[in-house]
């Protein structure tokens, strides 16, 4: 259980970093909805300037009134995610298990690299002498040009 404390501290920091981009996204949505309302039936609304102004005011107030509760809700959701880090989930890999898996991955990558090098060396030895010579001479010709 003690190994999870540093993980939870790091995760909470990362989750807290999600607050600003999500609030910013809500504000972008607000601005885009305002723009859409201005473009909606623009030609028809031009004929009635008072109605156009009143519609813009009502739509703007409606969207503005919804923006603050949306930002508050986003803040609450981020706080809820920070409050409960589910380390008991079956897909969660704890500290010691994560270290063990990382060591296994490093070992397997070293083994696969060693095997590949051995295969390359064996193929080079199996190649006829004439092929090896032709490859090197063609390489030399390219350098000369």
From TrEMBL:
Any one annotated GO CC term: microtubule
Region Disordered, residue ranges: 112-145
Bias (Basic and acidic residues): 117-128
Any GO molecular function: microtubule binding
Domain Dynamin stalk: 6-100
Biased composition (Polar residues): 135-145
Annotated organism of origin: Artemisia annua
Pfam family, one: Dynamin_M
Top-level taxonomic group: Eukaryota
Name recorded for this polypeptide: Dynamin-related protein 3A
InterPro entries on file: Dynamin (IPR022812), Dynamin_stalk (IPR000375)
């Amino acid at each position: 259980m003690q190994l999870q404390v540093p993980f939870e501290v790091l995760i909470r920091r990362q989750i807290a970093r999600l607050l600003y981009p999500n609030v910013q996204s809500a504000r972008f949505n607000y601005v885009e909805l305002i723009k859409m309302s201005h473009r909606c039936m623009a030609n028809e609304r031009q004929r009635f300037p008072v109605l156009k102004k009143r519609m813009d005011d009502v739509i703007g107030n409606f969207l503005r009134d919804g923006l603050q509760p949306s930002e508050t809700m986003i803040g609450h959701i981020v706080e809820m995610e920070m409050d409960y880090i589910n380390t008991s989930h079956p897909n969660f890999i704890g500290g010691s298990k994560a270290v063990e898996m990382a060591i296994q991955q490093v070992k397997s990558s070293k083994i696969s690299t060693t095997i590949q090098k051995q295969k390359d060396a064996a193929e080079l030895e199996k190649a006829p002498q004439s092929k090896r010579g032709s490859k090197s001479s063609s390489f030399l010709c390219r350098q000369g040009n």
